[in-house]
Amino acid sequence: MQPIHLYNSRTREQEELKPISATDTVTIYNCGPTVYKRQHIGNMRRFLNADFLRRTLLLLGYQIHDVTNITDVGHLTQDEIDEGEDKLEKEAKAQQKTPQDIAKYQTELFFQDIDALNIQHTDQYPRASEHIQSMITLIETLLANKHAYITSSGVYFDISTFPDYGKLSGNDIKNIDAGHRVEVRNEKKHPQDFALWMIDDTHLQLWDSPWGKGYPGWHIECSAMSMEELGETIDIHTGGEDNRFPHHENEIAQSEGATGKPFVNIWMHNRHLMLAGKKMAKREGEVITIDTLKEKNYSPLAFRLLVFAHHYRSPIDFSWELLDEFQGHVESIKKVLARLPLSNWKKGGLAPSEFVSALQYDLNTSKAFAIFLETIKELNKALDANNTKLASQLSSQLLNMDSVIGILEPLQKETMTQTIPDPITALAQDREEAKKAKNYMRADALRQEIAQQGYRIEDTPQGPRIVRI
């Protein structure tokens, strides 16, 4: 097991990861999707970064227990809390469907998208709607600890009872604004006191509680699911930079208010994916999904590579021209894979030390990407020189790097299963017949004709292999 240092958003310093578990199992909670609309590629950056973290820890020899939640009820922005309506409810009304139908469909699309991006599944995907009792129990603890209070509209967390409130985001409780678009509920003691439970018998999703029929607030869900699945203190919590406040700030307050223990040791937040200078969001301007990429003939793996090439704490200014660049990388890599004899395609040895070192210091994927590209170039040179020994070594290194990058194996499978047009197959068969008849001039002419049409024949011990050039 090799050490890794990660930037902690709470302390604003890089810290060495020291797992809480005696077995060195790293516990990770990833803020998952709110399944009311299709996830866009800005959302997908978050899940890709969590995947790169997961894969890096596995490469370094750690055991992992990770969770990604599915928010299928109660995701309320601060303004919507005061209005008493959540995102899933609003979408269900707009589409004249049930919230359950919306959530089920969008959850299926989410898994389709992460599979298209070759994101490894985490150990668990708990649904908020299936953990209501855990949330109620947690709220009861907060009431008993004098961190919450009951009103006619619901149960609220009293942020004045938690002196550390604002430490993650850097917000001073005295200067936090109540909001601009709606009138703050008069029953709240402080404008930023947040809902733990909303009492509302008109909501489309309702549960019984000691305080009346209603539904949970957004923040209580993650605390309850994290504690139930991973324990009261976890090693790493990931999310987008917009989650720092109020969501993660509120998670800390309610979790530590209930247990009296640290909630998370290391907070990791990725920066936004920007489009035309603005954060990509479902409610603003152009929304680009994985399906959008496919419709425009881009490989989802090109987007995966684009995200890997940027450090998670740096914003990405997305453009189609930028994606063109990474689609070009994908096509170049596929050509290298097509040149590589099947016997070379096996793991062995280790990833280059400089690649591993880059990841050990705050997941520097941009530096690791440069090392990956250089190794691809060296492999090309080795193949040009017919240096099979070096080509085998380099391909093994690339496969080990790909345990984190996650594009070579799916591209190799794609290359192997690529359909060869019938006329090309017929030419290849004619060439084989010419070789058997020792008509080598004819065989060579057929090879050249095949090459002119964009394909190459490789003679292997298992027989000829046709690959796209």
Features:
alpha/beta; Rossmann fold; 15 strands; 469 residues; elongated; 4-stranded parallel β-sheet
What would your notes on this structure say?
With 469 residues, the protein is of the alpha/beta class. The protein has 3 domains: 5-275, Rossmann fold; 296-416, no CATH class; 422-468. The protein is 45% helix and 15% strand. The protein has a 4-stranded parallel β-sheet, with helices on both faces. It has a 4-stranded antiparallel β-sheet with strand order 5-6-7-8. Strand 9, helix 7 and strand 10 form a beta-alpha-beta unit. Helix 3 crosses helix 4 and helix 11 (353-360) runs antiparallel to helix 12 (365-384). The radius of gyration is 27 Å and the shape is elongated. The two termini are 41 Å apart. The model is unreliable at 77-84 and 178-184 (pLDDT under 50).
Radius of gyration: 27 Å
- Named at the architecture level, the CATH assignment of the largest domain is 3-Layer(aba) Sandwich
The CATH class of the largest domain, by name, is Alpha Beta
For the largest beta-sheet, the strand count, sense and barrel status come to: 4 strands, parallel
Contiguous uncertain segments of 5+ residues:
77-84, 178-184
Q: Got a strand count? A: 15
- What fraction, in percent, of the residue positions are helical? 40-55%
Fourth-tier CATH superfamily name of the largest domain: HUPs
Number of domains: 3
Strands of the widest sheet, in order across it, are 4-3-9-10
N-to-C span: 41 Å
- Name the beta content range: 5-15%
Shape: elongated
